[in-house]
TrEMBL record:
Broad class of enzyme this protein falls into: transferase
Top-level taxon of origin: Bacteria
Residues covered by the Pyridoxamine kinase/Phosphomethylpyrimidine kinase domain: 73-261
Name by which UniProt lists this protein: pyridoxal kinase
Keywords in alphabetical order: ATP-binding, Kinase, Nucleotide-binding, Transferase
Taxon lineage: Bacteria, Bacillati, Bacillota, Clostridia, Eubacteriales
Annotated Gene Ontology cellular component terms: cytosol
GO biological process: pyridoxal 5'-phosphate salvage
GO MF terms, alphabetically ordered: ATP binding; pyridoxal kinase activity
Xref: NCBIfam families: PRK07105.1
Catalytic activity, EC: 2.7.1.35
UniProt organism field: Desulfosporosinus acidiphilus (strain DSM 22704 / JCM 16185 / SJ4)
Length: 287
């Protein structure tokens, strides 16, 4: 059996509402990885659909945790960042990337900060601008269309875009420095939804689509990104991992709809984990 790969997931913890670490940790663990965590903040609930949530910034904990890991000579096969708790964390996480990165380490940045044209309530324009510096250190970045606009300091176009615009956007994002770009929430035809990718090394642009479901489902971005990383670390190509992530995210949404789950609590990704394991080929001896 191959040596188990280790991931450091750098995200917040929302105590209620499935997103960030409460999504990334179980998905990556189910995909076969030793998943370490570095919490960037602790919230009583996530910020979408809930009011009066508590928020504790864990900026001062990042450096001591990183220092302890370094003293133990811990190695990581992937470094995966998402929601950051403060502007100062951008430089701290960038430093952590530099400290723990090796030639074999995959660095993924999901610049979690905005959706539907607006920043999350705990984010500032300064943080959004600074996030582009962190993206420059990544091998792969996974913004949605709103986050892409903030990263490039461009106007958010909403749903009025063409395939040519998406491909131009991918190329402009690649200038930030990442080797691979993935854009989520892409649709060119009613009833479908998916993602687009650009491999900067080959210049290849790929798309992955499946059926769309009406409504807003919290946490699906974290589900998608965590699944994408799971696919890549299980040696699938970017194009293959993209389709696996699109398919699994849809399965989670469908099961949420079927169960009647209140949407603000996130999608029922737990019930779809057997499907993910099957898609990753982990039930066979092939991988």
């Amino acid at each position: 059996m191959d040596k188990q790969k280790r991931i450091a997931a750098i995200h917040d913890i929302s105590c209620v509402g499935r997103c960030s670490l409460t999504v990334a940790l179980p998905i990556l663990s189910a995909a076969g990885f030793d998943t370490s965590v570095l919490p960037t903040a602790i919230l009583s609930t996530h910020t979408g659909g809930f009011e009066g949530f508590t928020y504790r910034d864990l900026t001062t904990d990042i450096k001591p945790i990183s220092n302890h890991w370094q003293s133990l000579n811990i190695k990581f096969d992937a470094l995966y960042s998402g929601f950051l708790g403060s502007f100062e964390q951008i430089d701290l996480v960038a430093e952590l990337f530099d400290t723990f990165r090796s030639k074999e380490t995959l660095v993924m940045v999901d610049p979690v900060m905005a959706d539907n044209g607006v920043l999350y309530s705990v984010y500032s324009p300064e943080m959004a601008k600074g996030m582009s510096k962190l993206c420059a250190k990544a091998d792969i970045i996974v913004p949605n269309l709103t986050e892409a606009a903030f990263l490039l300091e461009e106007e958010y176009v909403g749903e009025n875009y063409s395939q040519e615009y998406i491909e131009s956007l991918l190329k402009r994002l690649s200038v930030l420095g990442a080797k691979k770009i993935v854009l989520t929430g892409i649709s060119f035809k009613r009833g479908t939804l998916g993602a687009a990718s650009l491999d900067n090394g080959t210049g290849k642009i790929s798309y992955a689509f499946n059926a769309s479901v009406d409504g807003h489902f919290h946490g699906t971005g974290d589900v998608f990104s965590s699944t994408l990383l799971a696919g890549l670390l299980n040696n699938f190509s970017l194009e293959e991992a993209l389709q696996i992530a699109v398919n699994y995210t849809l399965k989670c949404i469908q099961l949420t709809e079927k169960s009647g789950q209140e949407k603000r609590f996130g999608v029922c990704f737990e019930r779809a984990l057997p499907y993910l394991i099957q898609q990753l080929g982990l039930l066979t001896e092939e991988r």
